[in-house]
Design goal:
The complex is a heterodimer. By secondary structure, chain A is an all-alpha fold. Chain A has two helices and no strands. The chains are: A mainly alpha, B mainly alpha.
Chain lengths: 161, 301
């Protein structure tokens, strides 16, 4: 069983060499190329995914920061608005109070003035009536001006109210 | 992984086929003749192939002589099965190549072939030979798939393993020997290659060292040749012997046990077919890598 058949050696060698040549060109090269291409594709895809992941994380962080700063801004704006409103309210109250005071004092002054005018008129009327009454009593015509002065002096000595 | 209902069926067929073959042998052989010798005859190369219900005579060519060597290029059973293996290999791998070139996603036969291609590249060629060894990848791949195809053909009914013939494994080993020397010479130059044969010892010791180193060059491929041949033949001998027991004891009661054992051995054979193709390729790549690395170390000094 261990005898060598040279014919078989020749056939094996020829077959094998031809097989290497043909398979190298038509099988191994395309298969290895496809394999390398796929490995390259996978490598690039992973790299790209890694990159995209980093980018997404960066954006997320950025958004988170923006959100946080927006929150702070909003808080600040609310606080400022509140303060402003408070201030405005105080100012308005102050103004309103002042205006009310002014109106009240103005009204008081007007009342005072009207009262004075009314009193003056009343005094005049009273003096005239008094003079008229006194004239009628005395039955003589007095010098109106002289007596008026007299009555006025009397009235002036009276207390204001 | 490789054992499914199909292969089981194959095994049963194979067993049935072997029974028939053995029965024929038993009929032909004389009652007192050596049954085992007759059985072994079935593993030998022959000028005819058997098929269900008969046999076919293969073409004979007149042998011729070159330098005292008689060369008979007749198409024998093993030549035929070697060509069958080569044809199957061409069909399958070229189809796989076309499929894989078309789409980035490997499917079916393309995926199956690629698994082995990638294994040979990443687990055999790269670790043993480094990146520089990738140029020998087509050789290694062809070695692996060719041996595997020939091994597997021995497992199908009426099939034969060309790798169970020492002339075939010798040829493969001679090619491996040439590739090992070529890769070493290519990596470090012829001068370095010769220098390595001296083993780096004092010139006084060269007469001892050089024969040892040269002998070492030949023992490695020789081991490759014998290992593959013996493994493939051994399995077949076990199977034939198991079947032979039925005829030795001249009792059908032995048959269930024999067939059971044969089925088990056949599954083992299936594994061995892959294993031996891998070992041959792995060792060739390892020996090539040793030469390449030794040459590269020289470059660094």
């Amino acid at each position: 069983m261990l005898e060598i058949n040279p014919g078989l050696v020749v056939w094996t060698t020829v077959t094998f060499v031809l097989l290497v040549i043909v398979l190298k060109k038509f099988a191994w090269k395309p298969i290895l190329d496809a394999l390398e291409q796929r490995e390259e594709h996978i490598r690039v895809s992973i790299e790209r995914a890694e990159h995209a992941k980093g980018e997404a994380e960066r954006l997320l962080e950025q958004h988170r920061q923006q959100l946080a700063s927006a929150e702070t801004d909003a808080q600040k704006i609310i606080k400022e608005s509140r303060e402003l409103a408070q201030k405005l309210k105080a100012e308005m109250e102050e103004t309103a109070k002042k205006q009310a005071h002014a109106i009240v004092s103005q009204a008081k002054a007007e009342i005072e003035r009207d009262k004075d005018a009314a009193l003056a008129q009343l005094r005049g009327e009273v003096a005239d009536l008094a003079i008229l009454a006194a004239g009628k009593i005395l039955n003589e015509s007095l010098d109106a001006n002289k007596h008026r002065k007299l009555v006025d002096d009397v009235l002036k000595s009276l207390p204001k109210n | 992984m490789f054992i499914n209902s199909d292969s089981l069926e194959t095994i049963q067929h194979s067993a049935a086929d072997t029974v028939q073959a053995v029965a024929q042998t038993a009929e032909h052989g004389e009652a007192g003749g050596n049954l085992f010798t007759e059985l072994l005859h079935h593993l030998k190369d022959s000028h005819e192939i058997e098929y269900p219900g008969g046999h076919l005579e293969l073409p004979h060519f007149p042998p011729f002589e070159i330098g005292g060597l008689t060369i008979d290029l007749s198409i024998t059973k093993h030549v035929l099965f070697m060509w069958l293996a080569a044809a199957i290999l061409l069909l399958v791998t070229i189809k796989a190549a076309k499929k894989n070139s078309k789409s980035l996603i490997p499917k079916g036969i393309g995926n199956l072939i690629e698994v082995f291609v990638q294994f040979i590249r990443d687990e055999v060629a790269l670790p043993n030979m480094g990146k520089g060894g990738l140029r020998y990848l087509p050789y290694l791949l062809t070695t692996f798939f060719f041996i595997l195809a020939m091994n597997l053909l021995g497992l199908i009914p009426y099939g034969a393993s060309a790798t169970g013939n020492i002339s075939v494994t010798l040829s493969l080993a001679v090619i491996a020997f040439i590739m090992i020397q070529l890769s070493a010479i290519k990596a470090g130059g012829f001068g370095n290659y010769l220098k390595h044969l001296t083993g780096g010892v004092h010139p006084m010791l060269w007469p001892i060292m050089i024969p040892i180193e040269v002998l070492g060059l030949f023992t490695k491929p020789f081991a490759l040749c014998i290992r593959l041949y013996a493994n493939m033949t051994g399995g077949h001998i076990v199977i034939v012997s198991m079947i032979g027991l039925i005829f030795l004891f001249k009792s059908y009661l032995i048959a269930p046990a024999s067939v059971g054992f044969v089925a088990a051995i056949n599954m083992l054979e299936l594994f061995v077919a892959f294993l031996q193709a891998y070992i041959f390729t792995m060792l060739t790549s390892l020996f090539m890598g040793l030469g390449i690395k030794a040459a590269e170390e020289h470059h660094h000094h």
